[in-house]
TrEMBL record:
Keyword Manganese attributed: no
SUPFAM superfamilies linked: FMN-binding split barrel (SSF50475)
Gene Ontology biological-process entries: pyrimidine nucleobase catabolic process
Source organism (scientific name): Cellulomonas biazotea
Positions of the Flavin reductase like domain: 30-174
Keywords assigned: Oxidoreductase
Gene3D superfamilies according to UniProt: Electron Transport, Fmn-binding Protein, Chain A
Protein name, entry field: Flavin reductase
GO molecular function: FMN binding; riboflavin reductase (NADPH) activity
Keyword Oxidoreductase belongs to the record: yes
Length: 181
C-alpha cells in the first residue's frame, strides 16, 4: 500500500463530524453475521508461544494465496505479531468452543493445556482443527485502532470429517445437516 493511500485512509478515519454508527449499533449488525472461528498462533523471537482467537480471518485471494485478519493494537499478542515472519491459522471444529474460549482468555498460558502440535517450522497448530494454514506475514496495515495483517499461505492441512465452529449472536454453534436448498 502506498503512503498516499495510507494518508487518505488516515484522513478519512480522522473525520469524526459525519454521522456514523455508535459501537452498539455496529455490534447489532455484526452479532447477526456468523463467522468461523480461528486461532492464530506463532512463536516469538524468544521462542515463546503466542496465540489468540480470531473471527476476523478472511480470504483475500486464491492466486496469489492471501488471507488476512484484524488484530487490536491493544492485544497482548500484537508485539509478537508485529515482529513475526510467519504464523499459523487453525480453523476450529464444532467441538472446540473450549479452545476458542481459552485462546481469548487474558492473563493465562493459553498453551499449557496442550492440544496443539508444533510444525517442523516451529509454529504451533491446534490439534483437531478442520484445517490450518501456515503463512508468511506480507503486510501489517494500521486501520483505526487495529492492524489488518495480510498473510501469504505457504502450507496447509485439512480434514473433511469435521464441521466448523461458528460464532453467531455471541454464542458458539455447530453446523447441522439442514441446507438452504
Ligand atoms: C469469538 C472471538 C473472536 C475474536 N476475534 C478477534 C479478532 O478477530 N481480532 C482481535 O483482535 N481479537 C479478537 N478476539 C479477542 C482476542 O481473542 C483476545 O481475547 C483479546 O485479544 C484479549 O487478549 P489479551 O488480553 O491477551 O490482549 C476474539 C475473541 C473471541 C471470543
Amino acid at each position: 500500500m502506498t503512503a498516499e493511500v495510507l494518508r487518505a485512509l488516515d484522513a478519512d478515519l480522522a473525520q469524526q463530524d459525519e454521522v456514523q454508527l455508535t459501537p452498539d449499533a455496529y455490534k447489532e449488525v455484526f452479532r447477526r453475521h456468523p463467522a468461523g472461528v480461528a486461532v492464530v498462533t506463532l512463536r516469538d523471537e524468544d521462542d515463546r508461544l503466542v496465540g489468540f482467537t480470531a473471527t476476523s480471518v478472511i480470504s483475500v485471494s486464491a492466486a496469489p494465496p492471501l488471507l488476512a485478519f484484524s488484530l487490536a493494537s491493544t492485544s497482548s499478542s500484537w508485539g509478537a505479531v508485529s515482529a513475526a515472519r510467519t504464523l499459523a491459522i487453525s480453523f476450529l471444529s464444532g467441538a472446540q468452543d473450549d479452545v476458542s474460549a481459552r485462546f481469548a482468555t487474558s492473563g493465562i498460558d493459553r498453551f499449557a493445556a496442550g492440544g496443539w502440535t508444533a510444525l517442523p517450522s516451529g509454529e504451533p497448530v491446534i490439534d483437531g482443527a478442520v484445517s490450518w494454514v501456515r503463512g508468511r506475514v506480507v503486510q501489517r496495515t494500521p486501520v483505526g485502532g487495529s492492524y489488518l495483517v495480510s498473510v501469504r499461505a505457504l502450507e496447509h492441512g485439512t480434514t473433511d470429517t469435521v464441521t466448523p465452529l461458528v460464532y453467531h449472536d455471541r454464542t458458539y454453534h455447530r453446523i447441522g445437516d439442514s441446507t438452504a436448498i
